[in-house]
Amino acid sequence: MNFNFSEEQELLRKTVRQFTDKEIMPYIGEWDATQHFETNILKRLAELGLMGVCIPEQYGGSGMDYNSLAIVCEELERGDTAFRTAVSVHTGLNSMTLMQWGTEQQKQKYLTPQAKGEKVGAFGLTEPGAGSDVAAMNSTAKLEGDYYILNGQKTWISLCDVADHFIVFAYTDKTKKHHGISAFIVERTMEGFSSKAIKGKLGIRAGNTGEIFFDQIKVPKENLLGQEGEGFKIAMSALDNGRFTVAAGACGQIMACLEASIQYCHERKTFGKEIGKHQLVQQMIAKMEAGLQMSRLLVYRAGELKNQGKRNTRETSLAKWQACDFANQAADDAVQIHGAYGYSNEYPVERYLRNSKAPVIYEGTREIHTVMQAEYALGYREDKPLNNMLPSWPFEEKTVSSH
Ligand SMILES: Cc1cc2nc3c(=O)[nH]c(=O)nc-3n(C[C@H](O)[C@H](O)[C@H](O)COP(=O)(O)OP(=O)(O)OC[C@H]3O[C@@H](n4cnc5c(N)ncnc54)[C@H](O)[C@@H]3O)c2cc1C
Q: What is the distance between the alpha carbons of residues 30 and 20, in angstroms, rounded to a whole number?
């Protein structure tokens, strides 16, 4: 495993850091307070080639490796979780899933404009009665002639009001349970599609999250992703990529907690010395530093496996679970270090604490990852190569077929 970043990756980190410092940090307090999702940020990310970092150039992306996507997520979440979440669903859950499972025609039609940032993608799996228990979903898709008739509702969908394309999941045959779920590409402009934002969230208040509704949507047959009945498998493979971006983002959240806390440790004095000189405060700083370094190792190991085209469900789950828990703890400690001042929005740490909770819930809750890791260790769960893997990196130029 290579622990060195290339010059290109170092430049990428610098670019995203400068972007975050200049175009997110000065405004994020206001966007968070007013629950405003700033869509211009996505346009700017597109201009910088950051809406398709690890998508091959032949599909409009920047052609960089999977750990470059981790770098982007780390640096964006140092600014705010909302924009990293946007990249997670757009690139991790949607574009990478199209890259892995899409037909050439689907890649040309949907992946290419998404990778260029001309269109935004999102991912609809969760329903009011189906979160961790995906198979409890109620959405249905019935084939009638050349169309699937899609009915149902999804909730807690990031970018619900913003995205142009959604990968969504519905039963084509409920009697087959998991094996009866299929995946579809749905466009916002299709008749029968509507969305509604959820307001009053604890965190990621500068993000757009909400419900999407399918009322007799006529989805063309060619928008079936994979084969009928492969939806559950596709959803789980999408989560391998989404979780990777969430874990990387958590590293950025810890960095932000460390930066704010270190600065405050030097500013604030009690009992005649900087609070950074008190050992119990040092313990919190040390835990943040350890959490950051351990999380990064787990994230970059998962990224390296992706680069090699290997299945990484186990490693990605571990990275996501641990990094998000470390970030949640780091944010709690950052507020503690700031004392009462950490309890107001005069300092950013209260936002970090609020933001750090959702990643412990979405893309597999802490409990689901705990159970997964125990099952792997006990030999109850084992990963086999999928029939469709992410392409290994460096990407090969493939001849584009017209079919
Ligand atoms: C801000 C935000 C953005 C989101 N974005 C998206 C998105 O873009 N697309 C999307 O599809 N979804 C999205 N989600 C939804 C998210 O993925 C779900 O909330 C998550 O999967 C958990 O489902 P649930 O909320 O229904 O909780 P439940 O599954 O009902 O779980 C409730 C509690 O029970 C525990 N539990 C459940 N089953 C078990 C078990 N077997 N063993 C032990 N404990 C268990 C859970 O860990 C949790 O503590 C988002 C959520 C949030 C908060």
A: 15
